[in-house]
Amino acid sequence: MSDRVLGGTCLVLALLYILFATQIRVGFISDPMGPKVFPIVIGVALALGSLYVLFRPDPEPLWPAFGRVGEIVLAVLVLVLYTYALPHVGFTISTTFAAGILSWRLGASPVAASIAGVVIAVSIFVIFRMILGLSLALGPMGF
């Protein structure tokens, strides 16, 4: 039953996503695909996945124990705080803390999680900012 609820919810979200994507205004000069295509493709993929879950649900889903729900809530809280901290402290610092905390909660020791947080943040910063030339949020120290 829970798979069907999830499938139905995701199907509604997919249809709303496609509806909102069709309302994107296209400028006079735009590329041949336009800005609507990518969101519509994502919405269609979500709708197809939702239909699969609706019509072929698992016989009996395994829900995590109640203690694991606290871990999930903590992970969501870390990600929400990450989004709020990102424009103020920059990509590298906020990603270091978020990746470190999530690594620690996934089972790494505190020292290994700290190292993983730094390596993940610096690696992503170098790849996206220096190699691909994409913009990332810069903090007060310029990184």
UniProtKB/TrEMBL annotation:
InterPro entries in alphabetical order: DUF1468
Keyword RNA-binding among UniProt keywords: no
Keyword list, A-Z: Membrane, Transmembrane, Transmembrane helix
Taxonomy, superkingdom: Bacteria
Membrane spanning stretches: 37-55, 62-82, 115-138
Pfam families cross-referenced by the UniProt entry: TctB (PF07331)
Domain DUF1468: 6-136
Protein name in the entry: Putative tricarboxylic transport membrane protein
Species this chain originates from: Nitratireductor basaltis
